[in-house]
Structures are given as C-alpha cells and as structure tokens.
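[audit] Reproducing an earlier prediction to check determinism. Same input, same settings, fresh worker. If the tokens differ from the archived copy the diff job will pick it up downstream; this log only records the rerun itself.
[audit] input (201 residues):
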Amino acid sequence: MTTATPTRRTSRTPHGVHRRRSQIIALGLAAFGILASSYVTNALADRDQVIAVARTVTVGSIIRVEDVTPAQLPGDSGLAGLMWSEIDRVVGQTATTTLLPGQIVVAQAVGAPSLPGPGQAVVGVAVAAGLAPAAALGRGDRVAVIDAVTGGQGILGEVVSESTTSAETRTIDVVVDATDAAGVAVLSRAGQAAVVLLEDR
C-alpha cells in the first residue's frame, strides 16, 4: 500500500505587499532626510546672521531698529560684520559714517551718540500729565513740541532721554534745531509744552 506524502504549502507574501512596504520605507527615509537637512540649514542660518543696513542712515544720525535687518553671510566670505544677536550694540547708537542699504554693519561704523550736533541744542521739556504719550519715550523717537494752549505748528525734535520730575511732571530732553531752542524753553517754563510722538520716517 502506497502512502501519499502530504504536500507542504509555502506561505507567500503577495508581490504588491512587498512593493508597498518598500515605498513606505523609502518615503520615511526621504522625510527624515528633509527634516535633517532643514535642521542643519536653520542652524547654519542662525549662526551666520549678521546686521545689514535696511535703509540709508546718514553720518551722525541715530540708528533705529527699522534701519537694520538680518542678513545671511556665507561662512567663507571673509567679512567681519556684527552678528544679529548683537543688535543692542547698534540700535540707539550713532552712525560714524553714512550707511547704505545692503551694507554689512561693522563695529567701526557705530559709536556713542554725540549730542547736540552742529546747529542743534538739547532742551529739557517739562510736561504735565496728559500732555505727552502715556508710554515712556525712547531715545531717537521723533516728536513735535507744541503750545498746548494755542496749538499751532509744532517744533520738531528727537528724544534724547526722559525722567520723572514729580508725580505729575515728566522732563523729556529733546534735541532740536538751535534756532528753535529758545521757543521750546519758553513753552516748558510756562507749563504749556505738549510733546506729540510722530511716525517714523
């Protein structure tokens, strides 16, 4: 009597399943590569961000935050610009040379403000509560000093500093044209001075 040998069946994974697995693995590797590349790129960008000039700043002018912008500097450029992380060393300082858009800011291009400049005068303006913006004014803010009683054309100037004289009075040091200094001083002494914050140029 002949005994039939059972046939062993081999389980096979369909070809389509192998293909899908390969595609999933490939997509995963591609996504990982993109993320890794993005991380490296961002890290390099942060490391190489320098301070560049956004708009022309004439020599002797105070540099405002709107005057500068971050820029990418290739590591092998050989240029030694101030890093964007050093922005506080630039804003509020004086341009020692005329800065042009696109120019990289170097340490020698900025210096401590020298006020008043030629043809200018610094006047302390005493203002009562309600006659100046509630928020403290910052160095370089453009303002107009006007007669709070009669109104009229204001005298343009830039804030140098601000201090609190009393609970109801603030003193704002403003640099103005030398020909306007006497008029501002008279308004301040009479208690009629109002300081209005103007829009940046």
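[audit] rerun output stored. Observation attached for the diff report: The first strand starts at residue 49 and ends at 53.
[audit] end
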